């Protein structure tokens, strides 16, 4: 990642971190500020459509302006809330500058951020709380363990040393955390292994250390919806990127993972190596204690397929995450990358099979139309065990991708900036399409095209009739029962594309793909 960072910004940040009492505490403070504002919003008694809540919360997360609002009352609240948060932030920065002056008066050292300070020096800083946990975020819980930490895997317990000064009554601090970033889904979270974080002291000593690591630990779960390709990235690798870049920029962390299945390690081996140079500690199979100089428990999620640069130490963007994927698979054989038919731009059609919904019923005809327009068309139907290196080579070497909204479109992360993505959007899922793939595609520099089907192109018209509420007012149907979006619009709907309409979209995509192809460096 070093080659993607602005070196001047990197050194400025390191210099700033020197003056802070705690690098991790600074990060946690930012998270708490944002979480407070979100909590204020969620406490208001406004009944909003979930898509509007999601977009509005993203506005709050960025602490931006009130140019997007839902009614004058919410606009006024946002203006007041942002002003209060700005005032708090100014006070926080003033206190930080005061701390900086005090630190500058001390003899200088060559230490970097706290995470790079040797264990024995880090443990001698009594002003840093050993255990800092933030449970205020809607999406995730996060704990920073700022002293030597002993993992006892048979009881899923983390013992943190150095708490006596912070706890004069000598009563152990204890926190419970399920390190998976979908906290609002209780049914999912009950399947995530709960970890106990507790302070170690003379009365409650930590167990003896069997394996000692020199790098901090990042502890999370690969359970939940893992196995669905969209969730593997949305709930896994994107939060992993955000969290790892928040606590360390030099890849020097040890990944400790629960629900760590062999297929997951094998499938994502190249990508996991981009986050840590150390072997993974499989929490499900470990039986011996592991010791770390410090640890972070949990993953930071900033929203669906979202990376907020303003909340990261080095202002990383979605393009930086895309670069990590590129680094993971840069050594694949070159023949995977080249179109096989002359110099025709390649279109990957992400296919779906029957029984899962959102199947293109006239897929063969759509392929013929795309080929007539000028594309070389490759059908792509991935499964749980598909080779990611081959998928990356195919898609990264292509110039356009077409598919109905679904997990397979997550492979658009493999497209190069400047490629074209056409997302076919079935009736009733406009906000899902934008939230899951629209925004991230633009953030990644793709030419994003949205093909919203009409009533006649949906299989729902045969089941319900064109005047049924399911077709005339999907928002009302979803508002009545949130699970209708899955039952009716995702699993219960196929599409039969209008060949004349899709041809016009494909023609425009072809022209964009040809322009991109002119810059193609393969």
Description of the structure:
This protein has 522 residues and is of the alpha/beta class. 39% of the residues lie in helices and 14% in strands. It folds into two domains: 2-328, no CATH class; 334-518, Response regulator (Rossmann fold, 3-Layer(aba) Sandwich), CATH 3.40.50.2300. The chain has helices spanning 7-19, 23-43, 50-62, 72-104, 119-122, 186-189, 229-247, 262-267, 269-272, 318-328, 363-373, 388-396, 430-443, 460-464, 469-472, 474-480, 484-490, 499-518, and strands spanning 131-134, 142-145, 149-152, 157-160, 174-177, 195-199, 211-212, 217-221, 254-258, 281-282, 290-292, 295-297, 346-350, 376-380, 400-404, 420-425, 447-452. The strands form three sheets. A six-stranded mixed β-sheet has the order 1-2-12-8-9-10, covered by helices on one side. It has a six-stranded mixed β-sheet with strand order 5-6-4-3-11-7, with no helix packed on it. Strand 16, helix 13 and strand 17 (447-452) form a beta-alpha-beta unit. Helix 2 runs antiparallel to helix 3 (50-62). Mean pLDDT is 80; it is low at 1-78 and 99-124.
